[in-house]
Amino acid sequence: MPETSLIFEKFSIDSSIVIFEDELAFCTLSFKPITPGHILVIPKRIEQYYDKLSADEVRSMAKLVTRCSGALKRALGCKEVTFGCQDGPHAGQTVKHVHIHVIPAYDGGLIDDDDRKQWSVEKMAKMARRIQGVEVEP
């Protein structure tokens, strides 16, 4: 994985929690996951709205969404995945940098927003390695 300084709006993303990356976009774990393995697919160029992305950025993100979906199913055993994008503050966007949520769906369903806990970078790094196929332990 290339060693670059990745930014999500104003947040610097630790390279240990970057799962996949290409020239235009990257994937990282959510700091406050809805379910274990919740991934954000983010364009490298900071842009608030999806329709402001270039066609190449959209294609890059779509490829990474697909790659993440398959990796989550293999690594975590979820059978289904939820995709979501809040395109602007009125749509629920809280970070002014477009991103797509890739959320593994398990038998227990999704977690109520009030019950979500923030993960440490160490816990996220371990999950990232597991999704990448580097660590296999549950």
Care to describe what's here?
- InterPro entries: Bis(5'-adenosyl)-TPase_reg, Histidine_triad_CS, Histidine_triad_HIT, HIT-like, HIT-like_sf.
- It comes from Carpediemonas membranifera.
- This is Bis(5'-adenosyl)-triphosphatase.
- GO terms for molecular function: catalytic activity.
- The chain has one domain: 2-Layer Sandwich (HIT family, subunit A), CATH 3.30.428.10.
- The strands form two sheets. A five-stranded antiparallel β-sheet has the order 3-4-5-7-6.
- It is built from two helices and seven strands, in the order E-E-E-E-E-H-E-E-H.
- The model has no long low-confidence stretch (mean pLDDT 87).
- Helices cover 25% and strands 22% of the residues.
- It has 138 residues and is α+β, with helices and mostly antiparallel strands.
- It starts with 5 loop residues before the first strand and ends in a 6-residue tail after the last helix.
